[in-house]
Amino acid sequence: INAEYMGYGPRFGRQIDPLSQIAVGIGCSQLLYAAIHGIINPGDEVVLVEPYYDCYPAQTTLAGGIPRSVPLRGLGTTAQELSLDIDELEAAITPKTRVLVLNTPHNPTGKVFTHSELEAISRVVLRHPHLTVLADEVYDILTYDGEPHVRIATLPGMWERTISIYSVGKMFSVTGWKIGWAIGPTALIKSVCLTNQWINFCVPTPLQEAVAQSLSLTFPGKEQEAYFENMIKTFTRKRDRLLTALTEAGMSPVKPSGGYFIMADTSAIDVPRAFLEQPTPACPVMTRDWAMCRYLTAECGVAAIPPSPFYSPQNRHLAKNQVRFAFCKSDHILDEAAGRLQKLMSGR
Fold first, then answer.
1. Cβ of 252: how many Cβ atoms within 10 Å?
2. What's the pLDDT tens digit per position in 39-61?
3. Using CA atoms, how far apart are residues 98 and 44, in angstroms rounded to an integer?
4. 216-250 pLDDT, tens per residue?
5. Are 51 and 70 in contact (CB under 8 A)?
6. Which of 307, 314, 302, 311 is nearest to 340 (CA)?
7. By C-alpha distance, which of 231, 242, 50 is closest to 144?
8. pTM over 0.70
9. What is the DSSP letter of 223?
10. CA pair distance 20, 341, nearest whole angstrom
11. Per residue in 314-332, pLDDT tens?
């Protein structure tokens, strides 16, 4: 906790009490679960930005809450073209709304919300005193092309209204090390700690010690902070390699500004009828994005994720022609994937 306090105080521009304003959990997902259960009561509503990480609506439902969705719109050639309609966001908030889950950098699109966009969102939040922001910022280190990550909790009036959540898995590329931390005002962090008591009780001590040492080496101003600069350079190169491969395969990829996923439009590729007409236990009513991913896996040997589960039923059609790829792979795997996609195109 002390290592997180020393590292994040400068990032938030404030003194953080390590004992009352930081909660440690078993990864970001578990902390989100604890935060949602600690804030909402059955019948309360949680507003989600679509497409979303699919644990958000599930965790809301498990807590007896009702998920409400507002989609990002304007998908083009870059993730930064996406925007959140502020009027739609305002309309989604009711007297029953207790939480807004905001993910930036955003999974799965790679959008990084700008300072002005976050200001507009914060103005909406501040008009609703019953609303708390859960800021899922696990990809905060991974932004590209000079796009800065802005923490919504640093905006005027938002520290008191925000729980910000981070993960060692994304920060140090050790996703099996399920350790995360939530940072926020004492009252909100207390709700996370009280809920944690009955979920996981504690986090493995040896892993916490290892994470503390790693964090202490990468505090702002430390020489080892260059670790993150090198990681960003590495992921930028991998991103650009996969963008090129997808374009050459006849897809229209969306260039991400953060994270390590790429959304790609596949509407120029025909999906064989057999895949479109064959339901599976996971997708009883087959959708095009799901069929495309099965086709790519079976015929090309390249796996992708269908993004329709990242949308509410009423907005699932927005994912019809989209698939999600990951570039957090070795150079060998990315080169192999590029070659396999080329073979698929050659056989068309």
1. 17
2. 999 999 999 999 999 999 999 99
3. 6
4. 887 666 666 688 889 999 999 999 999 999 999 99
5. no
6. 302
7. 231
8. yes
9. G
10. 51
11. 999 999 999 999 999 999 9
